[in-house]
User: Fold GNAT family N-acetyltransferase from Streptomyces zhihengii.
Amino acid sequence: MPPTAHQDHTARIDVAPLQRPDHADYIELLELTTVSGHLPPEVRHVLTLLAAQPPSTHGTALCLTARPRRSTHPKPAGALLASFPDWAFHHPLTQNNPALAQVLSRTVLLIYGVATAPTRRRQGIARTLLTEAEDRARTAGYGMTTLLHAPHLTDFYEHLGYTTAHHVTIALPDAAMGLTQPQPCLTAVKALRPDIHIRKLPGAPLPVVTGLLPGWDLPPTARFEDGHLIT
Assistant:
């Protein structure tokens, strides 16, 4: 797929799937998003794999790079890594329900990291990478994107249409899947279709995702009591 051009307020950015000559620069950029400064070894392995199915570009991962147009610097200025969420298979509600795990892994795209070179920040690169990832996920039939972020980035993600909180609940047909992050991390979620809603319910102080799949919506009388979803 050829690079996608996005117009933003300060520069024109070209986004494209990661290419082999950019592997080292891609890893270096994404390491900026880690506390230790090092990515897990399996990330390097993923970069050697053929794409499984859209929106992935390498194995089950979506790996994108970004460059400002007309830049004289050949290295990518931004990088994004996304894949299925690990909680789709490790959450208590899915560990004994492989069918549900598979559905969630094909419905929700987790952005594991998005990074911009320090000298290229505030040029719309991260925003453009996120928009491209969302577009690819939407085209592939995904219903939601999600990511973890530090509190100081709340305004940035909310400006892009994300809802952020320490705890987010996904309404399932007969249960509620809670996603809680340790302080100070926040979860950000964004619906990719108009039939998916992120809203407050009585008794639930934090956001609830409804309509992620047909039949996963809630009646108007839905509420939470003592942490349990009552429909």
Remarks:
- Residues 6-10 have pLDDT under 50 and may be disordered.
